[in-house]
TrEMBL record:
Keywords: Membrane, Transmembrane, Transmembrane helix. The chain crosses the membrane at residues 21-43, 63-86, 93-112, 132-153, 165-186, 192-210. The keyword Amino-acid biosynthesis does not apply. InterPro entries: YdjM-like (IPR007404). Pfam families: YdjM (PF04307). This is Membrane-bound metal-dependent hydrolase. It comes from the Bacteria. It comes from Niastella koreensis.
Length: 218
C-alpha cells in the first residue's frame, strides 16, 4: 500500500478543506515517514529478499514503534493533539488523528501478518495478506487513489498555472514511484532503502506548494 495512503489524504480535503494537503499527507503517511529514520537509527529493522519479487521483497522483521496497533494509536493521538494545541480546532484535530490511524488500518488489509498489536517482541502479529493477490490489491489501491484525487479536485480550484503544474508533477511522481516499487529491483541494503524512503518528504513539500495555489470551491 503506497498511493492508496496518499489517496486517502487527498480525499480528506473534502472533509476538512481548511487543512493543507501537505498536512494531510504527513498525517496519512506519518508511520512510513518516521519508519526510515528508525531504520537508520537501528531502532527498527527490515530484511531484504532480492531473490523474491513484488511485495515479498521486504520482510518487516521489527517495527513495533511505528507500525504496532498501540504505536499507531499513540502517533494518532500525538499528531492530532499537537494540531489541537496549535490550531485550536478540535474537529480538524480529530480528522488528522483518524488520518494517521488510517495508515495502520489500510496496512492491516494488505500486510502478510507482520503488524504487531503491541510494541513488544512477543506481541501477536496480524495482517490479512492482500499482498498475496497483487492484482486485486493494486486495483483497490488505484481506486482509492483516483477517488481521492477526484474528491480533491472537486474541493479546490487552482488559482494559477503553477498550481496545476505542481499538482501534475506530484501525481506523475506518485505513478513513477508506484511502478518502481512494484516492478523495480530490490534495494541494495536496509540503509539504501531507508534513505530512498526519505524521498517521501518531497511529496509533502509538493503538496504544500500545490495547495497554496488553490482556493476552496464555493
Amino acid at each position: 500500500m503506497f498511493i492508496g495512503h496518499f489517496g486517502v489524504g487527498m480525499g480528506l480535503k473534502k472533509t476538512a478543506p481548511a487543512i493543507s494537503l501537505g498536512t494531510l499527507f504527513i498525517a496519512v503517511q506519518l508511520l512510513d515517514l518516521i519508519w526510515p529514520t528508525f531504520l537508520l537509527l537501528h531502532i527498527e529493522n527490515v530484511i531484504i529478499h532480492p531473490e523474491l519479487s513484488g511485495n515479498r521483497i521486504l520482510e518487516f522483521k521489527s517495527y513495533p514503534y511505528t507500525h504496532s496497533l498501540i504505536g499507531a494509536l499513540g502517533w494518532s493521538v500525538l499528531f492530532g493533539g499537537i494540531y489541537l494545541l496549535v490550531k485550536k480546532n478540535a474537529r480538524n484535530a480529530f480528522i488528522l488523528g483518524a488520518a494517521v490511524f488510517s495508515h495502520w488500518a489500510l496496512d492491516f488489509f494488505v500486510h502478510f501478518g507482520d503488524l504487531p498489536l503491541l510494541p513488544t517482541n512477543n506481541s501477536t502479529h496480524v495482517g490479512l495478506g492482500l499482498w498475496g493477490s497483487p492484482m486485486v490489491e493494486i486495483i483497490i489501491e488505484i481506486i482509492i487513489f483516483v477517488t481521492g484525487m477526484v474528491l480533491y479536485l472537486r474541493t479546490v480550484q487552482f488559482k494559477n498555472t503553477l498550481g496545476k503544474v505542481v499538482f501534475g508533477v506530484l501525481i506523475a511522481l506518485f505513478v513513477l514511484v508506484q511502478l518502481s516499487s512494484t516492478w523495480g529491483p530490490a534495494p541494495a541494503s536496509e540503509t539504501a532503502l531507508a534513505w530512498s524512503a526519505q524521498f517521501q518528504w518531497l511529496f509533502v513539500l509538493l503538496a504544500y506548494w500545490a495547495d497554496r495555489n488553490t482556493k476552496q470551491v464555493a
